[in-house]
Design a protein that fits this description.
single chain; mainly alpha; globular
């Protein structure tokens, strides 16, 4: 009797121990981390599109830049040709990443309602706030950094191929490895942090808000309000202040030249000016409002 009576608590303790050990990993996980990883796994265009553009750029580099440089007898001109395409390739890859980021923010919350996957994700212990903020992080941080990594890898390959041509031509490698390319990478990283992560935050947040509202044609929900406001202002007052404000925001603010999309050694010469700009902090406040509304809307939404 004693052995049987003692067996029940022992079994109960064993079950409790197993349950505790099973729930411990769940409690130790970070919902934000897994939500971000889920987005990167689900939306493979985040890295596929920049990789495709990088492959096309490398192909063009092999058959145009290298071929043209080898066909040029003048060694100084040959060196100049080898140094030409780096900024263009950087802008091309990063431009592809920027377009992917805009498309991602514009469609991600709509897509999960359309394919009914929202039912699965809402069944998990992940809040709507975590879901929306993870999508914002992917659009503003993860995608630009993925594009940046692809730019570095692509230009490394270009630099190594150019070095082989330089060695075969009798040129000094110091002409290629002079640090200018590494300085361009630092400027591009600074451009990513200041413009694409901070200055463009309200644009990405607005696209997420439009994606949370729209059942279809999310691009119309994103574009029509701005278009209507601009038309009404023009008809009522004969001014275009709202359109100028949007252009100022898209252009990158006080120290950017994002219309060209190229890192420039003269841009961002005064970081204090950028970080003290009222438009930066006002934009971040507006982005926070857009995200709060998007979170609340998703909380009460179901599949289409």
């Amino acid at each position: 009797m004693n052995s049987e009576s003692n067996a029940v608590p022992r079994d109960a303790n064993t079950v409790e121990t197993q349950l505790a050990s099973a729930t411990a990993p769940v409690a130790a996980t970070h919902p934000m981390y897994w939500s971000i990883e889920r987005e990167l796994w689900e939306y493979r265009s985040i890295y596929v599109a920049p990789l495709v553009v990088a492959g096309v750029a490398l192909f063009a580099f092999l058959f145009t830049t290298l071929g043209r440089s080898l066909a040029t007898p003048d060694l100084d001109r040959r060196l100049a040709i080898l140094q030409e395409p780096y900024q263009f390739v950087s802008a091309l890859i990063f431009g592809a990443g920027f377009i992917v980021g805009l498309a991602y923010c514009l469609g991600t919350l709509t897509n999960e309602r359309r394919d009914r996957s929202i039912l699965f994700w809402k069944s998990l212990p992940v809040s709507d706030r975590t879901t929306v903020l993870s999508k914002m992080f992917v659009g503003t941080v993860a995608i630009p950094l993925v594009a940046f990594a692809i730019v570095i890898a692509t230009e490394w390959i270009m630099l190594l191929l150019s070095s082989l041509v330089a060695i075969g031509s009798g040129l000094r490698l110091s002409s290629l490895w002079n640090g200018a390319l590494f300085q361009d990478w630092l400027m591009l990283l600074y451009h990513i942090v200041t413009i694409h992560m901070l200055w463009y935050a309200p644009i990405y947040a607005w696209l997420l808000l439009a994606s949370s509202i729209a059942k279809r044609a999310a691009i119309l929900w994103a574009a029509l309000p701005a278009l209507v406001i601009g038309i009404v202002e023009k008809m009522a007052f004969g001014t275009q202040h709202f359109a100028d404000f949007l252009m100022y925001r898209v252009a990158g603010g006080p120290e950017a030249d994002s219309m060209r999309g190229l890192p420039d050694h003269t841009m961002h010469a005064m970081p204090a000016r950028f970080f003290s700009a009222p438009g930066l902090w006002g934009g971040l406040i507006v982005a926070g409002i857009f995200l709060a509304v998007a979170i609340r809307i998703r909380r009460y939404q179901g599949p289409m």
